[in-house]
Amino acid sequence: NRSYNLAPALWENSTVHAITCGYRAQSQRGNLGRVPMIGQLHNKDWIFSGLSNRGLLHHGIYGEKLVDMILASYNNENDCAITKQYPHLNWWKKKST
Fold it and tell me: What gap in Å lies between CA 64 and CA 54, rounded to an integer?
């Protein structure tokens, strides 16, 4: 209902095929501002979230770093070189005390 007035033709002339839901993650504020969550969760699961309002600026930079991490994992390389160069990318993996 809330978006009907914005685009009535879309609602009147379209068919909904699926409705999904999910979670929105927001990163913690640190000395670099809000840094996104990017990296490997499990063997085949990766995360790229928490871009906050700077997503339009950072999506390309951090997207490239995510690709580098994924390729390093498929080439049986450790992503240590990437995380050493950008240590702030691992902030979300650290255990809280």
Answer: 16
